[in-house]
Every structure is written in structure tokens, then in C-alpha cells.
Amino acid sequence: MSTLGVNSYRFSISWSRILPREFQYFILKKNICESLIIISLYIEGRFGDVNQAGISFYNKVINAILARGIEPFVTIHHFDFPQELVDQCDAWLSSEIRKDFGYFAEVCIKAFGDRVKYWTTFNEPNMMVTKLGYMIGMHPPGRCSQPFGNCTYGNSSLEPYIVAHNIILSHATAVDIYRKYYQAKQGGHIAIVIAATWYEPLMTTTADILAAKRAMAFNQYWFLDPIFFGNYPSVMRQMLGPNLPTFTPEEKTLLKEKLNFIGINQYTTTYAKDCIHSTCVIDAFDGNALVLTT
């Protein structure tokens, strides 16, 4: 990278590498036949110890690139999460995960923030975790329902929005911790990274123009509007009704001013065709927006 003249390097930290599952073994001696029973218990997440080998690994990466004049841009969460969070509390479907993520983020900020000046809380939460994990079921934990996918468990019209709600508030929790306790001292910046597909109407009709706007709302504004304005796009509320969670007044306060910059991953532009007033096969990826993309 140094030879190429690269001046920044964006990489992600593995949650399980920093807070792994730990096994503690207890050996009990039975009186009958003097046999031994070995019982193993595990401690996970915010209740376990920080893995110093993981901290050491990322310290080496950060120090090596800084020594070559390369600025680290560190993403705290990039799709992966400890299996134990799925087993114990359904991961992103539980509001408890906000505490887990806040703890994990603070461990990272405390360990690396003296050298890392650009943080992003989540990478593309509007795509991989929500849509591919809980709507289509192609990525872990593989939850979905018909007609979006064929999974054993899940509800594609409900769960992605619960997951998104918890991720948005987890982002706000991490930023709040950074702002209160670390930013002034460390002098860094914090943001979120969104997958930002652009949509154009397939035809210059009112229906397709509105379809393109709906697709935008159900894609990137889904995450950005709450952070900027404290609420979801109105078209999402109209179409999803009670399936779209609501923010409490306290949560809206927590969401205020929770970005220093915005990360944009822009891959492509697609056409959007209306599927409310037209007969068409709804695109599973943008299905709840009732559009066909092409």
C-alpha cells in the first residue's frame, strides 16, 4: 500500500476476536468410586474478559500502517457477531444487544482511539445484516419468510425492521459513549457507512418516479433519516404500519447529532418500476417497497 501511494486503509474489527467465548472448567470429585466430573461454563460478550491477543493483533496493524504514513479508518462492526449472542438473546432481534455493542465499541475505542481518528460504527447495516440476514436469509443468521426466501425461521416483513431499529440505536449508543468520554481527549471522528444504491424511474411516469423514491427510502433513508431527523421516512410508516418500530422520546434524544461524517459505499444505479399499480414480480431485495428493480 505504501509503495502504491495509498494514504488511508479502512479495515474492520472482529467482535469475536476481541470478546471471544471463554470456557472455565470445574473438576468435581464424587465420593462414589472417586470418579471425576468436569463441568464447563462459558462467559461471553460484555460479561467476559477482553482477549489481549486480539488487541495485540490490531495494535500491530494500526502501528504498522501509521509508520508508513497511512491513516487508519476503523469499522467496529462489519457483519460478523458472536454466535453466543444469537444463542442467548437472538442477537439483533433483542434490544439487549445495544448494551453488548456499546461495550464492544468502548473496548475498541479505549484500546485504539489514541491512534485511530476515524471510526465507523457499522458497515452497510441497510444491506448485509438486515436484508441478507433477516429478509432474504442468504447471510447468517439465515432468517426469512415467503415470498422473500425459504428459511426455517423468520418473518421478512417484520424482523428486518426490528433489527434495523436495534442497529440504529446501537450506533447512537456507541457514538454517545465516544462523545461523552473519549472524543475530546482522542480528537477523532465517528460515523456510519451506508450502502447507497441510486434508483432512477424505469419510465417517466408518476408511478415509477414514486417507486424510485420509495426504493431510496427503503434503502438508505431507512437508516439516515432516524440519525438526522429522529424518525423513519414517512412512506415507510405508511406502508409498513405497526411492523415499523417507533422511537421513544428518550431514543430520539439519544439519536441527535450522532454523525461527524457519512460513509458511502456506492456500487451501482438501478431502475425502479412501480409494483403497486402495475403487475410485476416484486424484487425480493426491495420487496417491502413494492418495486421491481432492473
Automatic annotation (TrEMBL):
<dbReference type="GO" id="GO:0008422">
    <property type="term" value="F:beta-glucosidase activity"/>
</dbReference>
<protein>
    <submittedName>
        <fullName>Beta-glucosidase 18</fullName>
    </submittedName>
</protein>
<comment type="similarity">
    <text>Belongs to the glycosyl hydrolase 1 family.</text>
</comment>
<dbReference type="GO" id="GO:0005975">
    <property type="term" value="P:carbohydrate metabolic process"/>
</dbReference>
<dbReference type="InterPro" id="IPR001360">
    <property type="entry name" value="Glyco_hydro_1"/>
</dbReference>
<dbReference type="InterPro" id="IPR017853">
    <property type="entry name" value="GH"/>
</dbReference>
<dbReference type="Pfam" id="PF00232">
    <property type="entry name" value="Glyco_hydro_1"/>
</dbReference>
